[in-house]
Amino acid sequence: MSHQQEQSISPGRRLRQLLATGKTLVCPGVYDGFSARMALAAGFDCLYMTGAGVSMSRIGMADLGLTTQTEMVDTASMIANIDPKIPLIADADTGYGTVANVFRTVERYITAGVAGFHLEDQVVTKKCGHLKGKECVSLSEYLTRIKAAVEARKTRGSDIVIIARTDTLATHGLDEALRRLRAAAEVGADVVFLEAVSTKEQLQRYCDAFRGTGIVTLHNMVQGSAQAYELTPKEAEQYGIGIMLYPAICLLPAYVGITKALRDLKSGLIEKDSETASPAQIFRVCGMNEIQEVDRKVDDWVQKFETDKT
Ligand SMILES: C[C@](O)(C(=O)O)[C@H](CC(=O)O)C(=O)O
Question: Which of 50, 125, 230 to mutate to test the pocket of ligand 1 (most atoms within 8 A of CB)?
């Protein structure tokens, strides 16, 4: 494949190619430029933009449905374009309103360079799927969201991957949750996402329900959550899970590490930590060398230009 052809592959197609391998795609949750840069440097094939992370890092609020469409699109666009070769799956929560809002969210995610997104059936004033007291909309209202997303994809001639999430396992039980996911797939979702799986039996039934259907299953691995069924990527592969999200993989160590550093500073205890990084090191992770290379090339060009003139 030529360089130009390689560049012109859409984000959706890149993600579809990864899913077609049949291997479990492990996606670390990132929420800002710095966490995205670290995940890219670690060599992941796909990133996940966690809505919980965006909510906390961008507006300083817990995952309670407070971020706006604009804040989500803006963050997704920045992350997706750091390295457009690495597809980004973005949280789209409830789509941020009614049918027209969902349609516009999807149009804007497509323009932003997002490869895939998930849309759920909680009420618009949603909360993290692993908290108690969730409420969900009716099946028909949920399907209007999925249909609006499918229409936006069609209107834009896009191949963005639509991931249908249901939160009804907690509110209505497994039968209803599976019914909703099947219905969403019939409307045009490519991937299904059963939120807050808490037992092996639920996981098994979920995976069995979609095995051999061509619909990819996603498992959300919220580390540390009481509701999450813990699973390694290797085990996920055996269940036939296509995508594993790790929404908290950067958030939890950031919380622990930063809190410790701040407490130490506050108590006057600043020891020379052998594990600490240098500013230059973290600038390098964030593209310093590449930008300096551009500077050098432009300088060379200016010098040649000036010489040729005289
Ligand atoms: C996947 C999720 O929607 C997210 O925002 O990352 C959250 C994760 C979390 O709150 O830890 C969810 O599971 O609802």
Answer: 50
